[in-house]
Amino acid sequence: MKKIAVIGAGHFGSKLSTALSEKGVEVLVIDNNLSVIQDISDEVAFAVCTDATNKRALHAENILDYDVAIIAIGNDFVARLLCAANLLDIGVKRIICRTMGENQKIILEKMGITEFLAPEDEVGQIVAERLMNPSLISYLQLPEEYKVAEILAPDSLVGKKVGEVGFRDNYKMSLITIRWKVEEEDLKSKKIPKERIAGVPDNNLLIDKNDVLVVFAKENDIEHFIKDNS
Asked: Which of 48, 92, 115, 214: disulfide with 87, CB 3.0–4.6 Å?
């Protein structure tokens, strides 16, 4: 089982910790706010109220036993720096640090941190993309202008077979899969939303309304596909 320490249990740190825990990760959460620790204690393996800017406190939590230490501290950049310095001195195997702006990243890089999280920047980019292209649900940015994107199936494609669209020939795109939501009844006849996925789509698979197309392509080709079918 992977073991990850998350330092800082604000909104981002808490969401990250619970998501990791739900995926079967053994999570240690560290924060100096007791009420925050009490709130999250039932959601993760370990939740400790201590000062992460204190090297002895980190040692006491056996931080070296963890595969990754994620510094998720929010607005207090000085605390993030001190925590990063402590983790480096202790010799933690892998450190991932939250950054808020390029200047912070430069300073952390000078210290020896090489992996970063910038949730505000990433959210801002996704929101901007969705405002420009409402059918674009989410995406993963890859090198050389490539993306894995989730696109709500355009009305013009509903009822067509996958093979009729010509994803590769017409748009230089690879259709990875299609996902959709259904409602299923539980034992109490209560309707529960469930997600289904097509696996590797067959050319004869019909595209339905509210299907989500998961594609791999360059940014310009994705934009061309959305514009051409809007």
From this structure: 92
Say how far apart CA 137 and CA 212 lie, in whole Å.
Answer: 8
Residues contacting residue 6 through CB under 8 Å, at least 6 positions apart: 13, 16, 17, 20, 27, 28, 29, 30, 70, 72
Task: Establish how many alpha carbons lie within 13 A of residue 205's alpha carbon, considering only the half-sphere containing its beta carbon.
Answer: 18
**What one-character DSSP code corresponds to residue 206?**
B
Place 183 in a pLDDT band, splitting at 50, 70 and 90.
Answer: confident
CA distances from 18 to 72, 141, 147 (A): 13, 24, 27
Coil/strand/helix, residue 51: coil
Tokens of 136: 């674009």
DSSP annotation of 204 reads T
Interval 15-28 mean pLDDT:
91
Residue tagged 């706010």 (tokens)? 33
Strand-pairing partners, residue 68, are 4
Domains of the chain and any CATH numbers? 3-117 (3.40.50.720), 123-229 (3.30.70.1450)
Query: How far is residue 78's CA from residue 15's CA, in Å, rounded to a whole number?
Result: 23
